[in-house]
Structure formats: structure tokens, C-alpha cells
Amino acid sequence: MPGTGGETGIIPAPPGNALKEALRAATFFLAGHDIARIQPFGAGNINDTFLVTLHSGGQRILQRLNPAVFPEPVLVMDNVRLVTEHLRQERNRNGIAPAQFRIISLFPGRTGDFYRAADGSAWRLMTFIADSRTCQVIRREKQAGELGRTLGIFHRLASRLDPGRLAETLPGFHLTPRYLQHYDRIAASQDGKDGAEIAFCRAAIDQRRALVTVLEEARGQLRHQVIHGDPKVTNFLFDRDGDRVISLIDLDTVMPGLLLHDIGDALRSCCNPGGETGRSGQTAFAPELFRSWLRGYFPAAGFLLTDEDRTRIIAAVLLMTFELGLRFFTDHLDGNRYFKIRFPGQNLQRALVQFDLAKSIEQQAGTLESIVNDTAAAGPGR
Ligand code: GN1
Ligand code: MG
Questions:
Q1: pTM across the whole model
Q2: Which atom of ligand 1 is nearest to the CA of 235?
Q3: How much distance in Å is there from the Cα of 230 to the middle of ligand 2?
């Protein structure tokens, strides 16, 4: 859900101020003379990330949590700490080598866990996972299999953590009916002067209203546990020279949820080779990547899924695609308070891509259904 407050409009690009603030935050964690360089890093839609290089050659990730999205940074940090400690223990218990599944750590500050800036935002410092790279999109089946396998490992390692121990940092985060209600409120307050693209998005939403309850209505029969909350392609780290995935990062949204939320979200991202910033009209869901992803996931975590989960995988992919389109479009109508934009209309463009993707999933539903059946039948993990 969009938080309160936040600036409307395009992110200014003033590395000057942002870097000064980042330096102030960095010196809360590190002695000033240790810091050789700070540079903007990554391309998240919410938080601001910097890479800090030390004179010793070491590197760290410094991040500013967006206060309009995460009003309670203490709870976010508590969740991250709890989950990373648990993952470490379970990684040992499962006999997985640390290098195969790397887990970030938070560095304590000199007087606390995070730095609180004058504007109220919270900054934290964590490990930089070296010798790795992110991919904006993936196109190879092997990579899709690796994404599925790694999310499966995450789910398996998180499966014994009591979800009740985590704070709900973003209440209703994947409660799609709430996003629809919010959209309806915002859309009703608009003057109705629609361009063709806005009319297209409104129609795309109206056609799919019935979809929003597809997981909620079956909640009792679906696997509920600690989930990642944001397993999109760019949150997986590949090893530097190969197609092996070595980490799943960005743990701010770890929370109690349905496995199908993660599975649907991961697949909508993984099986869109055009990417979230692709051109609308050219977006298609790739069934071969879908198959490979499932072949990676099932052996690692298939045993966690209920029969009802298995029958709703495609519905979940469609739902999470629709939900993200709805979120982008609502934010566009609402003056871009939630997702950062780099040019005017970017959230509208992002929404168009997700709605195109939803259509492509619907058109291929029969093919995808047989892929799920074949993969589930063939795979172990049961
Ligand atoms: C946001 O901040 P980032 O880029 O990791 C969003 C996700 C969306 C994603 C789409 C807290 O993630 O839910 O799927 O954008 N995170 C939050 O790119 O809303
Ligand atoms: Mg995120």
C-alpha cells in the first residue's frame, strides 16, 4: 500500500546532496578516514543504495530506507536480523556451503543499528557480496532454473521460522483487493480526461476485477510461512562469470505471506525477457523460462506446496502481474508518491508492460497448465 507523505514528481538527480547525506550516514558506521569512495548503486524503485569502498579495499552497501514506504525502519531491521540469523542456522543444518547461498549481514553503527537522518529516514550498512552480478532480465533457461532453485532454497530454509515472530512492516502488502479499493478511490477523484493509454489501463483493470480474490478465497488451503516478498530478477545475485545464482538479497519485505505470493511474483519477473521497463506492445510471457524455473524450484521446495497451491500457480502468476500493474498505474494517477520515476509517465509505462504481460499469460494459460502438470509429475520434491 502506498504510505503517507512522500514527494510528488520526478526524482531530482542531484548526486551532490544525496552523496553528502550518504557520507554523513557512512561516517556513523565507519571512521571517516576509512572511506575512499561512495557511489550510487543498483536501480531499486524504493530505497537509495550506495556502494562504499574503503581504503583497505573492502566494500559495503549503504542504504537509505524510503520513509514514505517504510515508516517503521526499526521493525524492518528486526525482521532482517531475525531472518538472516535463522537462514544461517538452517543453511548449516541443511549442509549448504556458505559460498553456495550467501547471506548478507548488517553492520552495527557506533551508537546504534541505524543512522537516523534529519529528514527522518533511516540508513543502514551491510555486507557487499563480492564477485557477483545482477541481471536486469534473463533470457536463458539455465538462469531461470537457477532463480527457481534459489527461491526454493530460501523457502526451505525459512520454512521452520515461526511467521508470528516477524513484524508486519507493510500491512496488506499482497492483499490485492486492498490495492483495487485504493485504485477505485484514486480513480474516482480524477477528472476523467483520459488519454488512450490511461483508458487502456482502466479497461485492463475492469476486465480482471474478479481475479483479485483468487488467493484470498483459498487462503486456508495455501501454504503460509515466512516469504521473501520481492523475489524479482534483480534481487538475485549471479556469480561473476557464470550462470550460477549465489544469493537472494533485498530482505526488507521478508514477512509472513503465502508461498504463492513469492512464486507468482518471481515468475512474473523471471518469465518477462523484455523486463519491467520494456516497451509495451512487445511484452510476452516466456513459457520455456517458466518450465525451467519450475524445474529448479520443485526439487528444492516442492514438498512445501499443498495440492491447492499447485493448482493455483498460474493464477498466482497472473494475480501478481496484475497486482503490480495496478500498483504502478494507481501510483501514476496519484502523482508518483511510491515508486521512484526517472521520467514523467514512467509508472504508466511500467503499468502497460504488466498489463501486456497479464494478457500474454492469459493467452497461454493452456500451455502453462500442461507445463505445471508435467513438471510437478516429473519432479521429486513431493
Ligand atoms: C519495488 O524497491 P524494489 O525495486 O526492490 C516493490 C516491489 C515491486 C518492485 C517492482 C516495498 O521493489 O513490491 O515488485 O518494486 N517494493 C516495495 O520492480 O513496494
Ligand atoms: Mg525490494
A1: 0.93
A2: 5
A3: 5
